[in-house]
Amino acid sequence: MSRSSSSLLKNSFLYLIATISIRATSFLLLPFYSHLVSPEEYGYVYMVSAVSTFFNMVMQFSMHACISRFFFDCEDEESVKRLYSTIVLFISINSVIIFTLLWCFNEQLAVLINLPTVYFKLALIISFFGVFYNAILALLYVKQNAKKVSVTSICVGVFQIFIQLLLVVNLENKAMALVGTLFLNSILTFIIFLFYSKPFFTVNFDFSRARKYMYFLNFQVMYLGGLSNLQIGCLLISILVLLVLEFMGLVVL
């Protein structure tokens, strides 16, 4: 086995073990959180998570998927920079426009989905700052920086568990503690995006490339049932589960 293959297997195994450990820890902490957090507070957290996930999908439009598709068409490092910069700038422009429009009508939308305005605003902010993380992860994956991806994912997971425990124990409003964890986690991922993007990002928006990427995404959604449809399906399932839990009295909205 070659040295590069051995390194890839080692880093992949490290990432797998770390991911399982973090998720197992989160699962084991559920009884502790259930003891402290009321069903009503869990309802708010669930809604914030669902709303932020939906707006995140709308803002990024799954553009990060184009990095995996078009990276291998790049002839040199400059082409990679143009690819990454065009996608990041598209996501940035799209996110700013959608965020601004939603923020202008945040009170009306919050009433529409029966969510307190402060939680709706936090959901918007979480989705905005979290929208860029997938782009840099996609680039690191295709550049085969497995170790960097593994270490970064581990750090983000540990940070989320630590902050969540700290806030839930110390804040009286447990729903705000859990939502605050999502907010701080989105800020952390945004900082990571800025740090890792520095070598690859230039202010270079290629309209012809952006149009090409849009055609690719439309083809995925229309003919292949791409990632966007899968994500939307998962979101609808999550909302359905929430409604069932509310009907059973396990969650109060």
Describe, in plain words, how this protein is organized in 3D.
The protein has 253 residues and is an all-alpha fold. Helix content is 82%, strand content 0%. The protein has helices at 3-28, 30-36, 39-60, 65-70, 77-104, 106-112, 117-130, 133-142, 146-170, 174-197, 207-224, 227-247. Helix 7 runs parallel beside helix 10. The longest helix is centred in the middle third of the chain and has 28 residues, at 77-104. The radius of gyration is 20 Å and the shape is flat. The protein starts with a helix and ends in a 6-residue tail after the last helix.
Which SSEs are present, and which pair or pack?
Layout: H1 3-28, H2 30-36, H3 39-60, H4 65-70, H5 77-104, H6 106-112, H7 117-130, H8 133-142, H9 146-170, H10 174-197, H11 207-224, H12 227-247
Helix pairs in contact: 1-9, 3-7, 3-10, 3-12, 5-7, 5-11, 6-7, 7-10, 8-10, 9-10
**Average pLDDT over all residues:** 78
Order of helices and strands: HHHHHHHHHHHH
Oligomeric description of these chains: single chain
What kind of sheet is the major sheet?
A: none
Count of alpha/pi helices:
12
Structural class determined from secondary elements:
mainly alpha
Regions with pLDDT < 50 over 5+ consecutive residues?
A: 222-230
Q: What is the beta-strand fraction?
A: under 5%
Q: Total strand count, please?
A: 0
Features:
single chain; 253 residues; mainly alpha
Short description:
This protein is an all-alpha fold and 253 residues long.
